[in-house]
Write a sequence for this structure.
């Protein structure tokens, strides 16, 4: 069966984000229809270069109108909806999924992964499933000037829904707090207009309550949730969603009994959902009712293993498994079941070694068992990952006090003092290298970093020439490593021994340019806290078959902040990369 798909996108001034979006859908698209609502940058020209069909319209404060313009122009049997700030992660599964689907299926749910920066510098990951893939039928059109939907029209046409393994990443919540506020205020204006046009629209009132929640206006959010629950059809899919977010609003307003009441009522409507159990778990935990909190988290765990399409349709919540293990472990700490808590934290840590909650949980267990040095080491790692967390710094002070009492001497109490004193002796910039038989090239490389690198770490993978002698001459720290056909593994071995605040990695046949070497340290010293690395320009001459040479220039992140291995690490047996690790820490 030949599957043909029309990808539909609406845009406005998206020249920066659009190229990666288009590349991600090219493997599964037979045409790309773009409805542009008034771009003043290069969006339209860029889309045309990609071969997209571009329709230009004037923006009229109506997302459904724009979406439906795209559907009207789409000529293939299936529609895939995506925005410029989204990317399909596994496009090869889209058509495979459609080929295996049942005849009565008209819509397919796609997993959407979003990341949002917290005020403490950490990153929250949200996972939801949305109807983004559906049959191209004249009776299936979007409804609503904002938070537009095709679900009701699809179901009323007699079609069913299926869940899919297709995943999409959404970048739209990674903006600064100011940009996010501006976006929410735009949404609020449109929602006010929609509610004015159609009074008593429970879905739009519910969406406005969520917008007020995002704007931290809990009083107005609560007013809208009450209004929604008073007007919503009892059989509507909106009701359990409104109850869940009403429970979140109540929780944030410290009305814990109301939060529990709303979450339980939502569970009566959709029993196999994780979201309401998540709210119950966090609320009971906040109240110190750890047995009931643990039960709620256990139910979440069971639901995540089965999956319920009904729950996904109404908008379920997918908590990353490592965070679920952290919450269960936290409850077990409250119940003083430290051995069982340890197992939960270890499970979470194995899934994500950068999960600060699990790291602090492990430190908590170590502290309870009076393994203070182990607790201190774990907390140091947690502070590196999330340096703005005052609660972790305060916990570190408690651990230091305990160590002081045991050792009988004054332990540094302030984290500022603790880390400030270490900073005086800790190298600022480490040159990190892997080498093998580089006696000809190595001196030139090390000369180029003279006065720049405070520490030189060299991992030797089996040199039989004078490489090691040359490295010793430059006071390098040399470590032996058995080559395993894995460049990332060798690079990571060097990271384990690199102690500088920043790391520069070079190969022996590379040199730091004299004209710019003096700029390196001032650049790093003035860098923002959320900057995890710097892209460097690498210039090289490439010999051609006819004997001529071509001069190539490329950008690679060769300098990065040392968050400590395995907090930061290389990936890839060949053409190894540090960038994914930097992004995983929420750094830029």
């Amino acid at each position: 069966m030949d599957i043909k798909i029309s990808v539909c996108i609406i845009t406005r001034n998206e020249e920066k984000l659009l190229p990666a979006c288009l590349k991600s859908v090219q493997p599964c698209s037979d045409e790309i229809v773009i409805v542009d609502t008034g771009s003043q940058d290069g969006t339209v020209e860029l889309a045309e270069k990609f071969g997209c069909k571009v329709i230009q319209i004037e923006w009229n404060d109506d997302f459904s109108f724009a979406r439906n313009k795209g559907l009207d122009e789409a000529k293939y049997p299936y529609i895939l909806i995506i925005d410029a700030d989204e990317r399909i992660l596994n496009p090869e599964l889209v058509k495979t999924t459609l080929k295996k689907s049942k005849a009565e299926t008209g819509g397919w749910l796609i997993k959407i992964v979003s990341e949002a920066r917290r005020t403490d510098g950490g990153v929250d990951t949200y996972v939801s499933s949305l109807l983004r893939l559906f049959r191209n039928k004249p009776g299936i059109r979007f409804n609503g000037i904002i938070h537009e939907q095709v679900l009701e029209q699809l179901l009323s046409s007699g079609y069913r829904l299926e869940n899919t393994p297709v995943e999409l990443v959404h970048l739209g919540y990674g903006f600064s707090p100011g940009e996010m506020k501006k976006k929410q205020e735009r949404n609020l204006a449109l929602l006010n207009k929609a509610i004015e046009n159609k009074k008593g629209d429970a879905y739009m009132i519910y969406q406005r309550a969520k917008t007020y929640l995002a704007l931290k206006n809990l009083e107005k959010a609560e007013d809208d949730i009450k209004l929604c629950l008073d007007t919503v059809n009892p059989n509507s899919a909106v009701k359990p969603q409104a109850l869940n977010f009403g429970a979140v609003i109540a929780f944030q307003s410290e009305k814990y009994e109301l939060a529990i009441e709303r979450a339980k009522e939502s569970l009566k409507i959709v029993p196999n959902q994780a979201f309401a159990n998540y709210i119950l778990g966090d609320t009971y935990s906040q109240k110190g009712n750890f047995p009931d909190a643990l039960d709620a988290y256990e139910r979440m765990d069971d639901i995540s293993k089965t999956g319920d399409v009904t729950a996904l349709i109404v908008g379920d919540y997918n908590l990353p498994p490592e965070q679920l293990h952290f919450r269960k472990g936290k409850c077990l700490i409250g119940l003083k079941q430290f051995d069982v808590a340890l197992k939960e934290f270890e499970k979470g840590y194995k899934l994500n070694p950068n999960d600060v909650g699990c790291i602090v949980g492990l430190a908590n267990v170590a502290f309870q068992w009076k393994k203070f040095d182990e607790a201190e080491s774990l907390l140091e790692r947690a502070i590196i990952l999330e340096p703005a967390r005052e609660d972790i710094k305060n916990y570190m002070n408690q651990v230091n006090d305990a160590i002081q009492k045991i050792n009988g001497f004054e332990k540094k109490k302030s984290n500022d003092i603790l880390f400030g004193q270490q900073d005086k002796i800790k190298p600022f910039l480490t040159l990190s290298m892997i080498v093998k038989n580089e006696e000809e090239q190595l001196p030139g490389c090390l000369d180029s970093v003279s006065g720049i690198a405070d520490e030189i770490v060299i991992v030797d993978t089996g040199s039989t020439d004078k490489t090691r002698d040359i490295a010793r001459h430059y006071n390098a720290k040399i470590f032996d490593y058995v080559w395993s056909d894995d460049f990332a593994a060798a690079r990571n071995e060097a990271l384990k021994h690199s102690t500088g605040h920043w790391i520069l990695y070079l190969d022996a046949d590379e040199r730091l340019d004299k004209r710019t070497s003096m700029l390196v340290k001032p650049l790093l010293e003035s860098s923002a806290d959320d900057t995890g690395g710097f892209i460097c320009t690498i210039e090289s001459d490439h010999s051609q078959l006819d004997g001529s040479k071509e001069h190539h220039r490329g950008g690679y992140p060769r300098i990065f902040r040392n968050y400590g291995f395995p907090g930061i690490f290389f990936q890839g047996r060949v053409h190894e990369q540090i960038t994914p690790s930097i992004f995983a820490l929420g750094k830029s």
